[in-house]
Amino acid sequence: MISSNTPIIDLHGFDSEYASIIVKEFILDNYKLNKNKLVIIHGKGTGILRKCIHNDLRRNKIVKSYKINMFNEGETIVLLKKNIDK
């Protein structure tokens, strides 16, 4: 379930290279703020942006897991590992 205080980033209009940079910063910022769930809106389209973002998420060491939102395939829900530096 996505609550109203879940951080969301919308990547509509971004190319995959710039989106990759923005998402890495978004994840790191929210990790530092001890957020554990994020939403990335990449849209449906041809799937190029989704594939790029999922590839980055797979390699990101602070990402615990991620999955496509079952109610909207244009969104990915990301769970972050716990930040031990509180």
Describe the structure.
It is a single chain. This protein is of the alpha+beta class and 86 residues long. The protein has one domain: Ribosomal Protein S8, Chain: A, domain 1. Helix content is 34%, strand content 28%. A four-stranded mixed sheet has the order 1-2-4-3, covered by helices on one side. The radius of gyration is 12 Å and the shape is globular. The model has no long low-confidence stretch (mean pLDDT 93).
Primary descriptors:
2 helices, single chain, 28% strand, alpha+beta, 4 strands, Ribosomal Protein S8, Chain: A, domain 1
- The CATH level-2 architecture is identified as 2-Layer Sandwich
Order of helices and strands: EHEHEE
Low-confidence stretches: none
The top level CATH class name:
Alpha Beta
Fraction in helix? 25-40%
- Work out the strand percent: 25-35%
Sheet of most strands: 4 strands, mixed
Broad shape: globular
The number of distinct helices, counting runs of at least 4 residues, comes to 2
The average pLDDT score comes to 93
Strand order of the largest sheet: 1-2-4-3
